[in-house]
Design brief:
about 325 residues, mainly beta, globular, four-stranded antiparallel beta sheet
Length: about 325
């Protein structure tokens, strides 16, 4: 069985493919997760991930224009959902788990019934691709960011567009709803490089912060007090959600941080940089792990609601499930 090796603070980190090399009795062991399984089936990049609310299903979106759903416990593929005419760049489950939303480069959003995989409806409006999705806490609204510089909000029941917000002066690359649902954050790509926080549902501007050539990923800490933003040059900036003040900068490497995810207990912040996944303690700003094994850049990360699993999606056409210790 091949070993994958990384270095963290001079200590060796060993990850065993298809199994766990963690030894609880090993002094100074710095592992935080081991590879549970690799999910193969997509023909191109896995660009988006989402766990169902109860954590038993993982949805993956791909540049091969399809979505797939997987059984987390067994790794078995459940369904392939087809119909988009472009890459699937964003996926999100409704809070009750009854709907799965997919946003595509074809500038549409599709709503799928999770019970049988049937298409409930298609939402249109953006002029260009949909880059991020988030359901409101009550599940009645769906927020979507787009390459057309906007964030839009739809009424899920009627499919009508409630709001169009000209959020940035460049493509909106990331979208995140605060844990309590009272605000959302958006990020801009090249020529913008800003993170902006807006109230929800009014979409009134609360603050904005600059400092990067482009921002590619966003994630709130579960207590809602901090917002992490992944930048162009391997940096993750943690900002106060109250006023945007910079709390600390975490350095993952030199390449863009394309994806971020924070565990439900707030103890771990995962950040992709190239094919590697750096894991930080966000409260201390320290590195606590490095997950390697993907053979292509990682573009999507998601923690399950119970924090037991981290999922990663890559340019190598696979998703991986990592089991946390």
């Amino acid at each position: 069985m091949p070993e994958l090796k990384g270095r963290i603070g001079g200590a060796a980190l060993l990850l065993l493919l298809g199994g766990c090399g963690h030894d609880e009795d090993m002094p100074g062991c710095l592992q935080v997760a081991c590879l549970e399984r690799t999910l193969a089936g997509h023909a191109q990049r896995v660009a988006a991930l989402a766990f169902s609310p109860e954590g038993r299903t993982l949805a993956t979106g791909s540049t091969d224009r399809t979505l797939r759903t997987w059984d987390v416990a067994t790794g078995a593929m459940q369904r392939t959902l087809e119909g988009h005419a472009g890459s699937v760049l964003a996926v999100a489950f409704s809070p009750d788990g009854a709907l799965l939303a997919s946003g595509s480069e074809d500038a549409t959003i599709r709503l799928w019934r999770t019970a049988d995989g049937s298409l409930r409806g298609t939402l249109t409006g953006p002029a260009f691709g949909v880059t991020g999705l988030a359901f409101s806490k009550d599940g009645r609204s769906l927020l979507a960011s787009s390459s057309d510089h906007t964030v839009r909000v739809w009424d899920v029941e009627s499919g009508s567009e409630r709001l169009r917000l000209d959020a940035h002066v460049a493509p909106v690359t990331a979208l995140a709803l605060s844990p309590d649902g009272s605000a959302f954050a958006s990020a801009g790509s090249l020529l913008d490089g800003r993170v902006r926080l807006w109230s929800f549902p009014a979409a009134s501007p609360l603050w904005q912060a600059s400092g990067e050539t482009a921002v590619w990923s966003l994630a709130f800490t579960p207590d809602g007090r901090a917002l992490a933003a992944g930048g162009s040059f391997g940096s993750v900036r943690l900002r106060s959600a109250a006023d945007g003040a910079e709390l600390r900068v975490l350095q993952a490497g030199e390449s863009a941080v394309n994806a971020l995810a924070c565990s439900a207990d707030g103890q771990l912040l995962a950040a992709s940089e190239g094919a590697a996944i750096h894991v930080f303690d966000p409260s201390r700003g320290t590195s606590v792990g490095l997950l390697t094994g993907h053979t292509g850049a990682v573009f999507a990360l998601a923690f399950s609601s119970d924090g037991r699993y981290l999922a990663s999606g890559s340019d190598d056409h696979t998703a991986r499930l990592w089991r946390r210790f």
